[in-house]
Each structure stands twice: as C-alpha cells, then as structure tokens.
Amino acid sequence: MLGTTTVIGALSFFQFRNALRSEIAGNLRFGATAMMQRVDTFLFAHVENMRVWRGIEVMQDIRVKDVDKRLSHFLSNLRAGQDKVYDVLLCTDAQGHVVAASEASYIGRDAPSLSGWRAVPGQGLDPISVTIASTASQTSAIVLRTTIPNAFGEGTIGYLYAFLDWRAVEDLLDGAVNHGSRGLLLADREGVVLGASAALRARSQIQGLRLERWELPPSGAASYIHKGTDLGDGELLVGVATSEGSPPFEGLGWHTLMIEPTKVSFGPIGALLWTMVGVLLVTLLAGLWISSRLADRIVSPIVALTVFTRGFRQGQANLPAPPAGATAEVEELHRAYTDMIHALEQSREQVVRAGKLAVVGEMAAIMAHEVRTPMGILRSSAQLLQRQPDLDDRQRELIGFIFSETERLNRLVTLLLECARPNPPHFMLHDVLEIVDSVFALLESRAERAGVTLSRESDGDGVVLSCDREQMMQVFLNLILNALSFVAERGRVRVSTHRDDDALWISVADDGPGVPPALRERIFDPFFSRREGGIGLGLTIVQQIVQAHGGMLSVGESTWGGASFNMRFSYQEPRT
Q: Three-state secondary structure along 115-159?
C-alpha cells in the first residue's frame, strides 16, 4: 500500500509539474503576443497619422518657408492634441533645414542626424521610414519620417518628422506586467533590446543588450526555458512573440519577451511536494487506524448475520436485524436474506393453496360420482310422487323440499367442479363497461330490495379488453354479490375502471365493514368464508379467473372505509 501510494504520488507530482509548466508557458506566450499587438497598434496608429498629415494643404507652406508660421502653429496643435505622445514634430525643406516645428527652438536648424532608417513595410502605404533615437544610456524616441509631395507639380518639397516619446512605449510595457515576478523586453529584428518594463530597466546590462543566444522566432510565438545569465538571473521561463502587424501594416519584425524566473513559476510545485509528503504520512497513519476500526466493524456484523441466517434456517421468527453500525454491504445482505425468506413464505403459501385446490378437485370428482347418481334417483322419485293425485298440502311441501335441496346439492357440486377444473377462457374483445351494465341489470332487483345503490365510473367512454365474457360476468357477479352480503341498507357498491400506460385497473368497492388486514391473506383460500352459510369458494374462483386472464387480484380498503377488490390486467389499445 505504501509503495503504491508513493508511486501514485510521484506520478501525480510530475504530471502536475508538467501541467503547471505548460499552463504558465502558455500564459507567457499569450502575454507576449498581446503586448506585441499593442505595440504594433501603437506604431500603426502613428504611421497612419503621418500618411494623413503629409497630404494636408498646410504642408505646402514649406515652399514659402512658413513665413506666417501657420504650419508651425498646426504642428503645435497636433502635438498638444496627442496628449504629449510626441516629443516634437518637424517639417524641413528638401535640403534638410527645419522650416516649421512644434517647438520654435528647432526652426532654422538642420534636421537631426539619425542613422539606421528602415522603410515601414506595407502594401499601398505612402513611403514612411522609422528609426530609433537613443543616447548612451537609453532609448529616447521612435522617429518616423515621410516625404511631403509637391501639390503643384512633381517631386518632393520637404520632409515631415515625428519624434514619438519612448515613455509611451514604456508605459505600455509597464501596464502589461501586473506583479513584480514577471518582466517584459522589447527587441528589434536583430535582437537588440530597445526597452523593458520598470523592474528590468533598473538593471544596467539591459540597454543595448543583444539577445544572441535567445530563441527569437521569425514569426508567431514560442515558449522555452532559458538561462538568464544575460540579465543576471537564474533559469527563466520565456514567452516570446514576433511582430506580424495587420494589413496593410506588416509590422517591423520586433520581438516582445515576457519572462519569469522558474523559481517563482515552479514555487507552488515545491510547496506541493512537501504537502504531498505530509499527506502521505497522514494517510498512512489514518489508514492504519481506519483498517483496525473497519476490521472490527466488518467482523462483528458478519458474525451477527451468521446467527441471523442460522435462526432463519431453524424456523425462528422475528429475529433481530444486524447490530447498528454495520456496513452498507452487510445491511444490504440482511435485506436480501429477508426478502428471500418472504419469497419462500409466499411460495409455501401458494403451494398450500394449490394443495387445497387439489383436495377440492379430488372431492369434486368423488362427489360428482357419488352424489349426483343418488341425487338423480331422489329427484326422479320426487317427480313420480308429485304426480300422485291424492297428495295433501303437507306431502306436496315435503316433495318441494326434496326438489330444492337436490337442486342446492347440484349447485354445490357444480361449484366445486368449477373451482377444481376451471374452463380455459375463450378470449375476444369485449367492452368491460357493457359487461358491468349487464351484471347490474341482473342484480338490480336484489339491490333495490336491499336498499343498496349500484354505480360505476370510468376515465373513458369505452374500455375494451380481450377476455371471456361469461367468465368476466361471473367475476363481477361474485364480487358484487359478496359486497351486497355485507353492505347495510342505503349502502353503496361502485365498479370503477382506470387506464394508465400499460395496465387496466378495475375495482369493486363498497362502504361495508371491509376486510381486516389480518384476514386479507386468507380471503382467497378455498372454504374460507365470512358469511353465514357461505361455502368459501366464490373468491377462490374469482382469483382463478383473473389469473387465467393474466391479471392480478388483491383486496384493500375503499375510499368509504369498506372493502375494495382491485384487479390489474395488462392493457394495450385495440387496433382499429
């Protein structure tokens, strides 16, 4: 366990270290790219200014040496309107003498002598050049220069110079670095450092530093680890982006580098390592303690479960559940054993019921043979006696008793035969509500004499079921007659139907005394009756018919507090 935990911890540590390195490198790459885009946008905006200004009509005052100072005033307004982004704006004649300027001290002098001019790349742009003005200690300005065309002929009448204050670029660099651990470098296409963020500007080795051993991609962005000896640092994580501009401005090929010391980047990794070691030790100690506790919690309930199972096997009832605090698995095992025992009990009850029905079958076969033959002789003898002309009233009454009792015995034998050997149903589509109405018609007079109201309700106009009509009529007759036997005067008996997605529910409910819960399991047993003089086979036959139709029969309590016999049949909409 300890070895596995150590391996998993080591793998997790290296995975997290690599993931953190990739995340930080991507963040540095993104920061360098965003900074390069801001610098490109800054330069492009001022290149566009130069392109617009060179064509303004007031620039033609160079031809007359700006005698009325209109051009100088225009340049001063431009500089003031740009929030001091420009150090100075100059206009010279073709020979390089300053004719107009935003500051009067430059007028009459020669244009500043600068080298390293490069044409600003871009399709369709007017010819504009750029260079860097610097002192021995730092970069001072970005200088843009463009020609001023002759509006009245061919050729060039002079030049427009714009000196961009380098502090504006430094402000961009400083704004992109929001904490002291990171720094930004801006380098030209040769890798010479032009500027840096505040923390790096304070280092003497930054100005004019050439990034010869640094990986500067010709395009796009990259990230890597570099030894920072050039900057007086240790190992650095670097994200670098190269200027690509945006059409029509194609950029100057400059580079921005966002750097961060790896000891800062990977500082959380070291903390994580020590945290993991501490967690490993705590886990080891906790595992030992939990193992001992868990072993005790598992062994004790299993012993109790063994006693519980042995008691069930020996036929003991109402055994206690496993002790509190057992694990979920042991509790689930206990529930599974209990469910199994209940299923076995139900199976035993079904076997007992089947045995009773088998006894009924044997009795019915014997009675059919032993009873009906002498019963037929008695009935025939009674008929012969009834034909005698000199019979008095008492004799005729006794002969009537013979007829009624033999008829009752015949019905009893028939009922026993139906219970023991029920006829298989002949399935056809029938309207259940029409069958119920037919039964109501048969029992209407009896219900009126008893003062009982018969009613039905349904959630649809037609409830069609595949069934044997005669057997279903017998079901409703038995259930309603059973209800009429228990309902008092002014009582109610209701047959209701309800359909859901896959079943048809039929219930026969009354407001009589109901069936006590203790008797509901025995109510369908053969020869069990709660009526005086009842045989106890009616509900048994009803259950057999319902089961032969693929249904289920149960007894419960009605909404009135009486009995409710509920039938459920699988149901599908009939095809039209």
A: CCCEECCCCCCCCEEEEEEECCCCEEEEEEEEEEECCCCCCEEEE
